[in-house]
Predict the structure.
Amino acid sequence: MPAAVRPPGRVGAQPFADVVAEHLDAVYRYLVYLTGDRAAAEDLAAETFERAFKSWRRFDPRRGAPRTWLCRIAHSAAVDWFRAEARRQRREETYARDEAQLEESVFSEGLSPELEHALRRLTPAEREVVALRVLLELDGPSAARVLGISTTACSTRLSRALKRLEEEMTHVRS
């Protein structure tokens, strides 16, 4: 069937959902091995399959197996992640030096001491996504562009940051 007439989400006889079901675990394990970080591997697996879905119509099974194609996409996503992590670590080091010099409230006037303490316990990456989405009220795609990550990864990072913030607030109040 010519590419222009293919049903959406289908290459040859195999629907994209079947490819995901068959290769998700392998791609995830590959990314865990590459990154050494299960949370990052989850984000990168989501990004890999998002990228794959967007280019699924162009996948040619005669040029290689779906697993190989997905691992190439995963590798590319991991390389992008390592570059972003290096930039994030440089920012964190800068923030850590600056934070050591600050004693007064740095987040916002009017926050409770408990919330200030809980925010300080978040990583700089978590604080950054909370600041962009909650304080600056950027939408998901805009915040993702600022952070240089996919919308899915941004949403996942925000969800984890808010969960951690909630846990920190529970510990502060106890």
